[in-house]
Amino acid sequence: MSDYDYDLFVIGAGSGGVRAARVSAAHGAKVAIAEEYRVGGTCVIRGCVPKKLLIYGAHFAEDLKDARRFGWNVPDCDFEWPVLRDNVLADVDRLNKAYTHTLESHDVEVILERATVSGPNEVTLASGRTISAGRILIATGARPHVPSCPGHELGITSNEVFHLEALPKRVLIAGAGYIANEFAGIFNELGTKVTLINRSDVILRGYDESIRDRLLQISMTKGIDFRFHAEFRGITKNADGSLKVEMTEHEPIDVDCVMFATGRVPNTDGLGLSDVGVELDEKGAVKVDAYSKSNIDSIYAVGDVTNRMQLTPVAIREGQAFADTVFGDTPRTVDYDSVPSAVFSHPPMAGVGLTEGQARMKFGSIKVYTSDFRAMKNVLADRNERALYKMICDAETGKVIGLHMIGPDAPEILQAAAVAVKAGLTKQAFDDTVALHPSMAEELVLMK
Predict the structure, then answer these.
(1) Residues 6+ apart with CB under 8 A from 188
(2) Taking residues 313-332, what's their average pLDDT?
(3) Residue range 395-426, pLDDT digits in tens
(4) What is the reported pLDDT for 47?
(5) Which residues are within 8 A (CB) of 211 and not within 5 positions of it... i.e. 6 or more apart?
């Protein structure tokens, strides 16, 4: 019999925490998981899943216009934001129940209240109840960062955007990362006038320069207004309820909504971690080793709260590796090399491996192959938007060390191609593969 109430207590029922709890229980551990909001975490409740559904909904704006070129007599259509919003939220409810059922069916006790760490082997619930555990796993994720400018409380973040009562006619989005560009595309397609401001003149820092420049060019053509070298001076409410935003280097602008998309902060505030000696970095993330263990032997952390790589599939891998290591007697670590990622912008972009700049820094001598083309559907739709695929290879070995693309269905195509990059295949292996024609993906094996 264990000396503790549970073998494992997980704080946070997001993607990483749910996977760790479920697999640990399958290994025979007695597990409980605490969640103060809803089971599913950022990705399922207020992130990737509802956002992707909004992206599907927004893309109909272009699809309906294009349909006329394909012979469909599509009339001018009105868009009803409450219908899309409520249907998306209903699917979130479904997923919340599904995740809860998954945990309960694996004999994981779900505790719907806030939990904090009160000792190396103890947590305290909001109700005051204390629980002992052999291991404690922190999986509390991250939250949107909000700049501390005057009037910041008048803005919203990606958490609140799914609950807007009405679609704003004018929106200002602060930031230039994937969240900012994705919602800029969503709002723009739905008919909102979008202004995106950023402190620097670079969008999507860390992505390949050619690909992100293509997105900037297309986004501007679609009507999104970019204001660079702009920092908030303040936000005030006008008499008509609109918001006046003042910023450096640019004239003030009146909008109906301000959305902050300026990064995410690990959720460690008020968890009691520092009180029990857990080391945090300068951003508040839990410092962990390759096995997700903190400096306290009984306390672990996975997912965005560690700020290693803030991606849902990575958090799931970390949760799985933790469970296998600690309760499955099979030590595992996560390989962070060649992790594919995507930006679900309009059009979407995706990449895996090194960017051209990173490859030149690391290898010196590289070869870059590109395909710059108009998708067949765009040609008939009389849409001038061009796709760009880019393959980066080690000049000496021919090994593909980076693959980046922007265009229709880029994330779907990149997922399969990422297997080849992860496997260390060469450009010759792509060349030796017969093209699947006619498709956009065939450009991967035809690049010169």
Answers:
(1) 194, 219, 222, 223, 224, 346
(2) 97
(3) 999 999 999 999 999 999 999 999 999 999 99
(4) 92
(5) 349, 351, 388, 390, 404, 405, 406
Q: Give the span between the Cα atoms of 349 and 409, in whole angstroms.
A: 8
How many domains does the chain contain in total? 3
Q: What range does the domain containing 34 cover?
A: 6-143+265-326
Can you tell me the distance from the alpha carbon of 80 to that of 75, in angstroms, rounded to the nearest whole number? 16
Q: Do 175 and 289 belong together in one domain?
A: no
Its pTM stands at 0.95
Q: Which amino acid is at 304?
A: D
User: What's the rounded Cα separation, in Å, for the pair 326 and 323?
Assistant: 5
Distance of alpha carbon 216 from alpha carbon 222, whole angstroms: 10
Integer Cα distance of 167 and 255 in angstroms? 12
Query: Cα separation of 17 and 301, whole Å?
Result: 9
Mean pLDDT of all residues in 1-16: 92
Specify the amino acid at residue 232.
F
Q: What digits encode the pLDDT tens for the residues 356-393? A: 999 999 999 999 999 999 999 999 999 999 999 999 99
CA distances from 186 to 50, 143, 192, 384, 407 (A): 12, 21, 9, 20, 16
Angle between helix axes 356-363 and 209-221 (nearest 10 degrees) is 170
| Torsion, CA 159, CA 162, CA 163, CA 164, rounded to 10 | 110
Question: 171 - beta bridge partners?
Answer: 194, 257
The pair of structure tokens assigned to 380 is 């008939």
* Structural domain includes residue 422: yes
**Which residues carry out catalysis?**
437
**Among 240, 262, 284, residue at a domain's last position:** 262
CB 51 within 8 Å of CB 182 = yes
pLDDT tens digits for 117-145? 999 999 999 999 999 999 999 999 999 99
Q: What is the pLDDT of residue 2?
A: 74
> Rounded to whole angstroms, how far apart are CA atoms 232 and 122?
43
Q: What is the separation of C-alpha 128 from the centre of its chain, rounded to a whole number of angstroms?
A: 34
Q: What is the DSSP string of 262-287?
A: S-EEES-TTS-TGGGT--B-TTSPBP
Q: What is the average pLDDT across 253-257?
A: 98
What is the reported pLDDT for 448? 87
Distance between CA atoms of 282 and 435, rounded to whole angstroms?
49
Last residue of a domain, one of 228, 245, 262: 262
pLDDT of 1: 54
